[in-house]
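Reader question, answered in our methods column.
A reader sent in the components of a multi-part assembly and asked whether the whole thing could be modeled at once rather than chain by chain. We filled in our standard form and ran it. Here is what they sent:
COMPLEX SIZE: two components
ENTRIES:
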Amino acid sequence: MDRRGFLSGAAAVTAGLAAPFVWTGGADAQTNNKYFKGVTTDNGFSFRSTNFSAIDPRWRRQMVKYFSDEPEGTVVIDTRHHYLYWIWENNTALRYGVGVGREGFQWFGRANIARKARWPKWTPPAEMRKRQPELPEFMEGGPNNPLGPRALYLHSSNGGDTGYRLHGTTAPWSIGTDASSGCIRMFNEDAIDLYRRAPIGTAVLVLEHISDRA
Amino acid sequence: MMGMRQIIAATGMVALGLLAAGCTSSGGSAFSSAVTGATDDPASGFAKINGGTEEDFILSVGRRVYFRSGSADLSDVARETLDLQATWLNKHPRWLIKIQGHADDPGNRNVALSDRRAEAVKNYLAAKGVNPQRMWIQGYGTKRKVRDCADVSCKAQNRRVVVNLRTQFDDAAPQAKGTQG
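And here is the structure of the entire assembly that came back:
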């Protein structure tokens, strides 16, 4: 994309929102323009589309073989290798690249997708605001919100909110890295994709790594 | 000894056999994948995907939509997927479309419910311009569960409609009757 194309794209995004870039992800975004290309309109908002030609192909959504005892219809996250698998029939899975929690912020276990939201609001947890005082108390849903266009909320089997979510990102370059505070980040396009594919009730298993690999 | 051409022909026949078996398997899948290779290898047929193929439909659109307990109403999330399906199906008119309904719901009317779910999908796609002559439905009730347990993690997966791409009508299709036998 040429400079002019980018500028008009950025202007279109800016026109769609009132708030300035308050989140540090926004500042990063200014220096990581190559990760964006064009604009996507979704449910009344616009966001900068991911430029997948700037992304390592292994992080792109793809159908792979998947051998596991875990039943069909389960979402499995391999934290170490930064993959999310949505298991299908015949030993296949739809695989997405993800960003995961940095060391000390990782979470493992079983959960269910209990709730899903479009353009989710975000209330940063108190501990997180202590670490990052620049964070607001509350953020409306929108293109600057670090949860991105979709969030899938993980609850444990006893019904309690784990506090962890699968969600989009304002920082596509962080997919494939250990960068979050424990949430599973996806490309915005993929968060939208998984949101419509995985029904409420879907079992989620977060692993350090799948047993095929060490 | 078998020549290369015969081996390829034989392999092709095996693949067709697998494909046919796949159509009637419990998963209702029309694509098959040999159980070889390792996790993270590209799934069969998905290494390089051409537009308009079944693989393209599965990866870029998705075949399934899900329903709330006891309901055949289309949720806004289901409509999001059906809108994408309609666009794709209208762009690729060579495919016939078998709409398979499934249920795993309270009560003993699961077959009727699975029929109504499939019918709801068919009507929605037709309203979005997909020719009804290309489509037919079949309700399977609880016969083809994705996973079987009392928990919502199983029930949610089973309360679904799968939109299958076909090249021929089958016995469940009214379009086939009168033209065969």
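What stands out: Chain A has four helices and 13 strands. The helical segments of chain A are 3-15, 24-31, 126-131, 188-197.
Send us your own complexes using the same form.
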